[in-house]
TrEMBL record:
<feature type="transmembrane region" description="Helical">
    <location>
        <begin position="170"/>
        <end position="196"/>
    </location>
</feature>
<dbReference type="GO" id="GO:0005886">
    <property type="term" value="C:plasma membrane"/>
</dbReference>
<keyword id="KW-0472">Membrane</keyword>
<feature type="transmembrane region" description="Helical">
    <location>
        <begin position="107"/>
        <end position="126"/>
    </location>
</feature>
<feature type="transmembrane region" description="Helical">
    <location>
        <begin position="82"/>
        <end position="101"/>
    </location>
</feature>
<keyword id="KW-1003">Cell membrane</keyword>
<feature type="transmembrane region" description="Helical">
    <location>
        <begin position="227"/>
        <end position="260"/>
    </location>
</feature>
<protein>
    <submittedName>
        <fullName>Iron ABC transporter permease</fullName>
    </submittedName>
</protein>
<dbReference type="GO" id="GO:0022857">
    <property type="term" value="F:transmembrane transporter activity"/>
</dbReference>
<keyword id="KW-1133">Transmembrane helix</keyword>
<feature type="transmembrane region" description="Helical">
    <location>
        <begin position="133"/>
        <end position="150"/>
    </location>
</feature>
<dbReference type="InterPro" id="IPR037294">
    <property type="entry name" value="ABC_BtuC-like"/>
</dbReference>
<keyword id="KW-0812">Transmembrane</keyword>
<keyword id="KW-0813">Transport</keyword>
<feature type="transmembrane region" description="Helical">
    <location>
        <begin position="293"/>
        <end position="314"/>
    </location>
</feature>
<comment type="similarity">
    <text>Belongs to the binding-protein-dependent transport system permease family. FecCD subfamily.</text>
</comment>
<feature type="transmembrane region" description="Helical">
    <location>
        <begin position="267"/>
        <end position="287"/>
    </location>
</feature>
Length: 318
């Protein structure tokens, strides 16, 4: 049990660091107007925590399902698919109709479409790849390029006013908070936490592979579908809150795999959330309060995540 105790200690250290970082984020540089500042930063802190959970846990679940530490929902085009749905909605209803549709209504329409499309997408990828990692990654990237290309085509067909409305959704940004979407995201996070935590032991068995899972009594097809639906919903939440972040989940899971020696999900799930939250909050504290917004956090995260992706691919080849 040494690895379990080491993992528990690691979670404790992460929790303490996250609390300290959150306090600094809420209070650093405040000279007056505490009520206004704490309310503003509190909303932003909740948004960062929600995004950290959605991205970190969805990537961890995806890697558990695919049995591969390189694949992420963003890499296989999940966030591009969500943005495509946004553009199609804008193209059909126009800028006035798009903005008049409430955040909750748009999410209720787009999230189920995202779930159904993700099931079809993942089944197509796994069916055509036959366990070949290179083919799986290549097929996923082709789907992602196809979604982005179709998205770009629709952008060129709409007028400049509609394009300006759509453009705000295509780049990750951690500075503004949509309260309605934040409430939805927190609700999804809480409900998914209950289900995922109940399934943590089945997720451990799932890592043994399809045949071993079935032999041990796991309903593999039903569990896989449930995981895919939660992944699609969490990706929808994170993309709706801050925009697409393709490599952030890969960066987080790589850190978790390196720091948590135990493969049990009762340690890996909270570790993924804590590491993601620590990276986002400390990064936003650095760029927003210490550097005066002279840098963009999403660009740095994607750059580091891309380097980690290349390193993991080259490491597997050796």
């Amino acid at each position: 049990m040494p690895s379990h105790h080491a993992g528990t200690r690691f979670l404790g250290v992460l929790s303490i660091l996250l609390i300290i970082t959150s306090i600094l984020f809420m209070t650093y540089g405040v000279k007056g107007g505490w009520d206004f500042v704490l309310q503003l930063r509190g909303k932003k802190l909740l948004m960062l925590l929600t995004v950290a959970y959605a991205v970190g846990v969805s990537t961890l679940l995806f890697q558990t399902l695919s049995h591969n530490p390189i694949l992420t929902p963003g890499l296989l085009g999940y966030d591009s698919l969500y943005l495509l749905l946004q553009t199609v909605t804008l193209f059909v209803f126009g800028a006035v109709g798009y903005t008049s549709i409430g955040t909750l209504s748009k999410f209720i329409i787009e999230a189920p479409l995202m779930m159904m499309a993700s099931l079809l997408l993942f089944r197509t990828l796994t069916k055509n790849s036959n366990g070949d990692l290179a083919r799986l990654i290549l097929t996923g990237m082709i789907f992602g390029v196809m979604f982005r290309s179709f998205n770009s085509l629709l952008q060129r067909l709409i007028d400049p006013t509609q394009f300006a409305v759509a453009q705000t959704r295509y780049f990750a940004q951690f500075t503004s908070v949509n309260i309605s979407m934040l409430i939805i995201g927190i609700s999804v996070m809480l409900i998914s936490t209950v289900w995922i935590w109940r399934m943590r032991y089945q997720l451990d068995v799932l890592m043994l592979g399809r045949n071993a899972s079935i032999a041990l009594g796991i309903n593999y097809a039903r569990l896989s579908r449930s995981i895919l639906l939660w992944i699609a919903l969490l990706v929808s939440v994170s993309t709706a809150l801050v925009g697409p972040v393709s490599f952030f989940g890969l960066l987080i899971c790589a850190l978790v795999n390196a720091c948590v020696p135990n493969m049990k999900h009762q340690l890996r799930i909270p570790a993924a959330f804590l590491v993601a939250a620590l990276v986002l909050i400390s990064g936003q504290l650095l760029f927003e309060h210490l550097l005066g917004m002279q840098g963009v956090l999403s660009v740095v995260i994607e750059f580091c995540g891309g380097i980690v992706f290349l390193w993991l691919v080259l490491k597997r080849k050796r």
